[in-house]
Amino acid sequence: xxxxxxxxxxxxxxxxxxxxxxxxxxxxxxxxxxxxxxxxxxxxxxxxxxxxxxxxxxxxxxxxxxxxxxxxxxxxxxxxxxxxxxxxxxxxxxxxxxxxxxxxxxxxxxxxxxxxxxxxxxxxxxxxxxxxxxxxxxxxxxxxxxxxxxxxxxxxxxxxxxxxxxxxxxxxxxxxxxxxxxxxxxxxxxxxxxxxxxxxxxxxxxxxxxxxxxxxxxxxxxxxxxxxxxxxxxxxxxxxxxxxxxxxxxxxxxxxxxxxxxxxxxxxxxxxxxxxxxxxxxxxxxxxxxxxxxxxxxxxxxxxxxxxxxxxxxxxxxxxxxxxxxxxxxxxxxxxxxxxxxxxxxxxxxxxxxxxxxxxxxxxxxxxxxxxxxxxxxxxxxxxxxxxxxxxxxxxxxxxxxxxxxxxxxxxxxxxxxxxxxxxxxxxxxxxxxxxxxxxxxxxxxxxxxxxxxxxxxxxxxxxxxxxxxxxxxxxxxxxxxxxxxxxxxxxxxxxxxxxxxxxxxxxxxxxxxxxxxxxxxxxxxxxxxxxxxxxxxxxxxxxx
Length: 545
What we know:
Layout: H1 7-11, H2 15-23, H3 29-33, H4 37-44, E1 49-57, E2 63-71, H5 91-94, H6 102-113, E3 117-128, E4 131-144, E5 147-154, H7 157-172, E6 174-180, E7 186-188, H8 190-195, H9 207-213, H10 219-231, E8 236-244, E9 247-259, E10 265-274, H11 276-291, H12 295-306, E11 314-316, E12 319-326, E13 337-343, E14 349-356, H13 360-379, H14 384-398, E15 404-412, E16 417-423, E17 428-432, E18 435-439, E19 457-460, E20 466-470, H15 482-497, H16 506-514, E21 524-531
Antiparallel strand pairs: 1-2, 1-5, 3-4, 4-5, 6-7, 6-10, 8-9, 9-10, 11-12, 12-21, 13-14, 14-15, 15-16, 16-19, 17-18, 17-20, 20-21
C-alpha cells in the first residue's frame, strides 16, 4: 500500500480503482506522493477553488486521467466536497461526464503545449438519480510544476440568485431602493418602477416628486417618517397612497437610515410593497364585519371563506387527500391555522399546513397572505426549503409582528418522491401498513431570524402510504410535553389502521376519524394524503423505501 493511501478507502476499492492504482506506478514516486513547497504555498494563498493535479499514464505513456494532489483551502467541487476531501480524487472516476468534452481535451492540450487556456463558459452536467444537474463554470487551466493548475468559479449562482430575487419581487409585488442624502443619488429596483407605474428610462422620482405623488391626506405620515429617519437608525414602517394611472395604490414602505459618527443621516435603505390587494381584502373583510349583526356570524362566514369545509376526499395526481379545519369551541374565535393541497402546473402536488400566532382578524389576515404566498412560490417551482427561506425573510422585513409555523411538502407522483421541511411545526407522520413513524426535518420558527435557512428531507413513498399533517391544537395540552402528545397521536393512528387492509381506501377515513383534537380551546387543521398507484419502488439512496 502506498503511504498516502487511506486504509478505509482501500478496503472498499472498486475494480476501476485497482486498475488506476496500477496505472499510478508509471508515475515517478515523488510526483505521486509529494507536492513541492512552492506549489503548496501558492495554493494556500489562492482565493476560491483551485487544484494541482498530476497526470496518470498507461503503459504506453498516454495520459488516461489526472489525480488531484493539492488544493486551495476554499476549494469546493460540484458534489460539495471541500478542501482536503478532494485530495486523491481522479478526474475521470470522480467526474465521469467530463470525458469527451472540450475541457478534457484542454487538459491534455495544456499538458502537451504548456500554454494556459481559459474557459469563459463551461457547462458541467452530472446525473444523479437519473436527473441531470447543470452547473456553469469559468475555468482556467495551466501547466505548473509538472502537473496541471486548475481554478474554477461557479458562474451560474449569481444568475440564479438574481432570477430568484426577481421572482420574489414579482410574487410579493415588492422592490428595494436607496437614497444617498449627501449626493442625492436615488436607486430603485425594477419592481419599484413597476409599482409606481414609471419607466426605468425616466429614472427614479426625486424626494420632491415623490411627495407630490403621495395623497395629500398622507403627507403627515410621510413627514413623520422623514423625521424618524433623521433622528434614528431603527427601521420605520409607513403606508401611503399614491395615484398611478388614475387609481390609488397603497404602498407600504419599510426603511432605515445609516448615520455617521456624529449622528448625521447619510443614506436611507428600504423596501416598498404594493399592498393594494391586501388593503382591499382587509377593507372587504371590514365591510363584511359591519354587515353582520353578531360576531359569531362573522366568524362562521370568514371561516368558510378562508378554510372551506371538505366533505369528501379529493383526488390529486398520485394521491387521495382529505382535509379538515375545526375551529375552537370558543365563541367568536378566529384562528390562524390553515392547510393547502393543490396540484401544480408541473405535475407535482403541494401539501402544506401552518399556524399563525394569535387570533382574530389580524391572525386570519396574516394566515391568508402566508397561504397564498406559499402557493405562489410553489407554482414558481421553488422547493419547500426555498419557499420557507423566502417566506421567513419577507415576514422578518415586512411583518415583524407576525410569527408562524409551517410544514411544506412537494410530492412528485412520477417516482413517488416526497420533499419536505418544516419551520417550528410538529412533524408529519408516515403510516406504512400499521407502522407509524415521525418524519423529522426541523427548522426554526418563521419570523424570528431573518438569516434563517431551511433544508429539505427526501423520501420515496409506497402505494397506500399515508401522510398525516396537522397543527399543534391536535396534540398540545397545557401541562403536558408536546412529544407525549405526538406519541399518543401516533398510537391513535396505528390503532385505527390495524383492523383495515393495507390497500383499503378506508384507511384514509379511519385515520381522519381518529384525529380528535386534545385542546378544544384551539383551532386545528388536519391534512391526510394516501399514495395511489402500483409498481415496485426504485432504489433511493440514503433510505430503504
